[in-house]
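request received
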Amino acid sequence: MSVLSFRCLAAAACVALGVAILEATAGPAEVAQIKPRQDKLRDMGGALKAINDELKKGRIDWDNTVVPNAQTLKDRSAYLLNWFPKGSGPESGAKTYSLPAIWQNNEDFVTLGKVAQVEAAKLNQVAISKDANALKAQLEAMGKACKACHDRYRSPDYAKENDD
Amino acid sequence: MTSSDVSRLESAFADTTDLRVWDLPVRAMHWSLAIAIGVCWWTGLHNELEYHLYSGYAILWIVLMRLYWGVVGSSTARFVNFVRGPKAILDYASTLHRRDTPHTNGHNALGAVSIVLMVGLILAVVILGLFAVDVDGLYSGPLSIYVTFKQGRHLAHLHYHGFNILLWVIALHLAAVIFYFIYKRQNLIGPMIHGKRRVEAAEACDAEMKIAPLWRFAIGGVVVTAIVYAVSIGFYF
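response:
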């Protein structure tokens, strides 16, 4: 057997193994939610950070940074609660930081999600009003709404590898 | 009783004296660093990042002051007096199993390695923390404005892993202190609290610590406070 054909065989074996693993773990459509919801939540984290950074820099660029990022937070948060269908937790076998408690205490989870939506809407209002003091207060309220849910329903990720 | 017995008895009852081995800044920095690291550990694990930031600044201040004191401080605090080459370290390590080795005034050659390792690791972990971004984007490090959310999250993970390594080195430090206490019958904790060690008078003469004046510490304190403040506002004045 030539080296080349051995390589082809090895590559085919790897692909077959990969497909087998994918089929074993990725089953229901709910799992398909996990990756996009991570991407969207990361965007929201990035949006909040971008506004926070403006405050830290002490010269706030309302039109280019604060307003669009507040809009992102408001828009994304409106769909927040749709991203967590039952079956998209760790029991799916996919890599996720979502804790099973999301579905065990779902009422509380939904309440926290709605608080986040309200705070994001308020943040959007403040961004449009361009009031720096109000922005400062509302950013904290927004961050705390994120934190409230993360503290209860997101597994502490530091022990795991990078979440990308 | 022969005359040689008498002289032995005399030396046994010979004057002992308190030899100063650690000055006040070294002791204060040691214990406040231990407390600040404890606070950072707890607040980090419990996502209490507002207080984690404050205790992190405290650690940065202490470590920078220790580096400064390692240059201009009292004799036992200065790096030139305790950081040794590989030969001295190996020589010291080869006597580790013996129980009759004399006390070192200040850090011994092997202890110096652990000091340099701990100070270096603490500084590295703190610097990573300055750039780290928390998952909520709420209490990020003051220098995180210079990185993206994703980079900052990655640095937060490195911050965590670096701290885990630090915990092992601290565990080794504690194990060494216990080893000296039980096996070598040398109490290292007492001197780190009150600064003194009981020695025979004869031994004290040649080993006296040169104490640096406290005003020198105060000058460093002002400068380091300014540096930590500048860092805490991300150099945006």
